[in-house]
Amino acid sequence: MLQPAERASALLELFASDWPQRPADLHLRPESEADLPLLRGLYASTRSEELARSGWDDTQQQAFVDQQFSAQRSHYRQHYPGAAFLVIEHAGAGIGRLYLHWGREELRLMEITLLPEWRGRGVARQLMQQMIDWSAERSLPITLHVEPFNPAHAWYRRLGFDTLEVRGVYHFMRREAQS
Q1: Residue 86: how many other CB atoms lie within 10 Å
Q2: CA distance 31 to 90
């Protein structure tokens, strides 16, 4: 079995080459500290509706986003050693993030987030298809956590994911490897 760093490198290779129907100028690369403003903005974009209802002023909202982003970032690194933390780029500009962990018995989709203007344009679907094909070749299921009110929940169900259990506010979902 590959070591965690080798698994992360293999996941990057999954997206380094061309794949069927890959959008032009779409590339993935490992994230760096220089990406923190983009990554924080991506995280904030996933909480915008919730924050709009909070009644908080801009300063309070920013403090909340900063704290939650830092907590999530720390959690991912603590619980998923050797994960691939990738920035999705289009024509050299960051448009999203994709976090994957190749474990002993699964491919865990930790995060896939695109900037709002890139949502609904097929990028996530094509990335997901690449993951599905890759996991099928290795007979690995794909697992993830998603909140049931997140629009992605219905999308994952359409892609063949089933809810295995409810873990706090999240549904733990799994898609069996299919050839």
Answers
A1: 24
A2: 14
